[in-house]
Write a structure and sequence with these properties.
With about 425 residues, the protein is of the alpha/beta class. Helices cover about 50% and strands about 10% of the residues. The chain contains 14 helices and eleven strands. The strands form three sheets. Strands 3-2-4-1-5-6-9 form a seven-stranded parallel β-sheet, sandwiched between helices. It has a two-stranded antiparallel sheet with strand order 7-8. The protein has a two-stranded antiparallel ribbon with strand order 10-11. β5, α8 and β6 form a beta-alpha-beta unit. α9 packs across α10. The N terminus and C terminus are likely disordered. The chain binds guanosine-5'-triphosphate. The site of guanosine-5'-triphosphate has 17 residues, from α1. Guanosine-5'-triphosphate (GTP) binds next to α1. It comes from Meira miltonrushii. This is GPN-loop GTPase.
Length: about 425
């Protein structure tokens, strides 16, 4: 899909646009990266690795140049959204724990650990507009804003607060999802498959560009997973070899099971896995995956390349779709507003017809009294609207209250008064 966003020159506060860099004029410089993954997959370690990687890169650059000031790139901006984490190996710029005391919340509301995390996240989300304000201000100074999410994956991915945070971010700036997978724990075809199904569900829920990050490659190389994704027959072969797909394979021996089963207890499971693998084949085509080690920093350069590609995908595919949805919603809201107004006017006319002469007189008096105090630009929702912008509604109001035309108020001033003339 062609990009509808214009690639323009950077604004005054932005760095110079380099070849290949995608900095459409209206988009912030930063890409926000939402780090999601199963409990223990290494989200926090990965996030801290990003911080260390940046610091080490900067040290390397300045050593090469011999002058620390020449190539300094701004450090990523970090947000911790896990209220229950006790220790972090990175220093977040914004930390949910500064706002919410998770332990006290659990005690006061008699909540379990997951209920506590969910409630903490919900409370934090009520203030997320303030956080977003901070992030938006930083988004023209940094390249990456990284959000570390709670350990229990479903608390973020399937909660209303998770959706609100994700949508708010994706509307404000290019946003991508980094889905962390514990590679050594994915050696069993069934575990691999369930992880991929989960990833697939998150991708379709958020509709954001997605990066699969096979973590802990210092313990287990992720090549086997890449092959399973690239070649359906290789996955089938691994399934056949393992018999019981819940047992890990030994990638050094062509996918044979570490502990081979000798019955056919896996047959049903295998055929289920086969069918799901076929379905997921399409999903794999839309994925970019990298292997990293959060302890050795191996693969981090590949990760940042993948982020660059994902940003481009956001600009080309996600943003135009988002703009279309926003426009569609605004049009629908406008249409609904007008049809409700028309309906109300119709009801009023009908009621008027049914009223007795005395009632009608009383209502006319009440309406006249209302007109004296009514600012004709008042739309009824607490907002002063610009009549030039919304001429139809203004016309409708004049239909409704024909006496509210140019008249003189009790104090002799012109009526309706212009906005700004109203005595406060
Ligand atoms: N060898 C190795 N261990 C890792 C790597 N990344 C994380 N770990 C270890 O995996 C364990 C879990 O890592 P965390 O970063 O706490 O995982 P998490 O996903 O943030 O955990 P929760 O938020 O509690 O779900 C820790 O013992 C880490 O040291 C890695 O790349 N290599």
């Amino acid at each position: 899909m062609a990009s509808s966003a214009q690639e323009g020159t950077a604004g005054p506060s932005r760095p110079e646009v380099k070849d290949g860099d995608l900095l459409p004029d209206q988009l912030p410089r930063a890409t926000s990266i939402i780090v999601i993954g199963m409990a223990g997959s290494g989200k926090s370690t990965f996030t801290s690795c990003l911080q260390n990687y940046h610091a080490d890169q900067q040290k390397g650059e300045s050593a090469k140049e011999g002058d620390a000031s020449t190539t300094t790139e701004p450090a990523p901006y970090f947000v911790n959204l896990d209220p229950a984490v006790t220790q972090l190996n990175y220093s977040p710029n914004v930390d949910i724990r500064d706002t919410i005391d998770y332990q006290r919340l659990m005690e006061e509301y008699n909540l379990g650990p997951n209920g506590g995390i969910l409630t903490a996240l919900n409370l934090f989300t009520t203030k997320f507009d303030q956080v977003l304000g901070i992030l938006e201000r930083r988004s023209n100074d940094v390249d990456h804003i990284i959000l570390d999410t709670p350990g229990q994956i479903e608390i973020f991915t399937w909660s209303a607060s998770g959706s609100i945070i994700t949508d708010a971010l994706a509307t404000a700036m290019p946003t991508v999802v980094a889905y962390i997978i514990d590679t050594p724990r994915t050696l069993a075809p069934a575990t691999f498959m369930s992880n991929m199904l989960y990833a697939c569900s998150i991708m379709y829920k958020t509709k954001l560009p997605f990066i699969i990050v096979f973590n802990k490659t210092d313990v287990q190389d992720h090549q086997f997973a890449m092959e399973w994704m690239d070649d359906f027959e290789k996955f089938q072969h691994a399934l056949k070899e393992t018999r019981n797909p819940t047992e890990p394979i030994d990638p050094k021996h062509g996918g044979a099971s570490v502990r081979r089963g000798d019955g056919d207890e896996g047959t049903y499971m295998n055929s289920l896995m086969n069918s799901m693998a076929l379905i997921l084949d399409e999903f794999y085509k839309n994925l970019r995956s990298v292997g990293v080690s959060s302890t050795t920093q191996a693969g981090m350069a590949d990760f940042f390349d993948a982020v660059k590609e994902a940003r481009k995908e956001y600009v080309d595919d996600y943003r135009p779709e988002l703009d279309r949805i926003v426009k569609e919603r605004a049009e629908k809201k406008e249409k609904d507003k007008k049809s409700q107004l028309n309906k109300m006017m119709k009801d009023m006319r009908l009621n008027k017809g049914k009223k007795s002469a005395g009632q009608a007189d009383e209502e006319e008096e009440a309406e006249a009294a209302l007109q004296e105090n009514l600012d004709p630009e008042y739309e009824g929702d607490g907002q002063i609207i610009d009549p030039d912008v919304d001429e139809d509604i203004q016309d409708a109001q004049e239909d409704m209250f024909p006496s509210a035309g140019a008249q003189f108020g009790k104090d002799g001033s012109a009526w309706p008064r212009q906005f700004g003339q109203i005595d406060m």
